[in-house]
Amino acid sequence: MILIDYKSRKPIYEQIIDNIKHLVVSGVLQRDDQLPSVRQLAQELAINPNTIQKAYAELERQGVIYSLKGRGSFVGSSLQELRTVQQKELLEQLAALSTDLYRLQVPQDEVYAVVQQVYEQQKEDEIHD
Amino acid sequence: MILIDYKSRKPIYEQIIDNIKHLVVSGVLQRDDQLPSVRQLAQELAINPNTIQKAYAELERQGVIYSLKGRGSFVGSSLQELRTVQQKELLEQLAALSTDLYRLQVPQDEVYAVVQQVYEQQKEDEIHD
DNA sequence: TAGCTGTATTATCTTATCTAGTACACTTAT
DNA sequence: ATAAGTGTACTAGATAAGATAATACAGCTA
After folding, report:
1. Which of A99, B40, B77, B123 has most Cβ atoms within 10 angstroms of its Cβ?
2. What residues have CB less than 8 Å from A21, skipping those under 6 apart?
């Protein structure tokens, strides 16, 4: 369900955040679904409970989950809501990247070609699922 | 010539690397042009010489500059060479970002529209230089 | 020779990340 | 009521990356 790359330069708690967001955005986790408890997930991933707690706290701050003392942690954002937020973030990244591409004089056609190729490849990969 | 954002989460030595690469790619610094000395640049930017040395060492490892003991450090890569390398890096970033955009179901048209808008805006900005 | 260069070394400081252990308040099921 | 599970808070320590500080050495050049 959740995979951690311990060799990555990205902190573990950030990987957990990204991972859970992805589970929500892909529909695996739905609103009000219960997340694994802090201690349980810590044991599964063989990491310290404090690290899980840090990830959950940040997810709660962002409104992705909510936590109830004694009850557990639950999904607090719908697929659509989170998807919209993340789409906006990605499009901002795209704009920044496009600026760099322009300044390095990469032709607009070439940018389109890369996007086109990725989209086609992704479509193909979906068929072979 | 070189600006450092001390509040950035990006390490200073990485900012220096990016900054010098940009000066080469934009044609301000040309092949065999001499760079400021380690101590001189350290004084200008009010940072430790070791930090400059770290940046220069990495730039030399990448072939962007070369250093001669007792002489100084010089640009070792032509505008075209470095531009090609950086274009390739950016296109790889674009491919990765496109994969995320596809997975978040952002329509291809919308991706194109953002790129288009940035390119047009950049062209306009150039006129008003 | 004096004063620049690059380069190397050692030590110290700070910060972020992660671990470890403990404690407390709350909920739920028995 | 009790036990076991939840979230939450706190302190302490380990580790690594980044940056600073001071010093030293080798090579070049005026």
Report:
1. B77
2. A59, A64, A82, A86
Architecture of domain B12-77: Orthogonal Bundle (1.10)
Chain B neighbors of A127, CB-CB under 8 A: none
pLDDT tens for residues B22-78?
999 999 999 999 999 999 999 999 999 999 999 999 999 999 999 999 999 999 999
* Under 8 Å between Cβ of B63 and B57: no
Which residues 69-128 of chain A have a CB within 8 Å of chain B?
Answer: 83, 86-87, 90-91, 93-95, 97-106, 108, 110-112, 114-119, 122
A43 contact B CB<8A: no
- Token couple for A104: 């390095």
| pLDDT tens-digit series, residues B13-26 | 999 999 999 999 99
Distance CA A51, CA A55 (A): 6
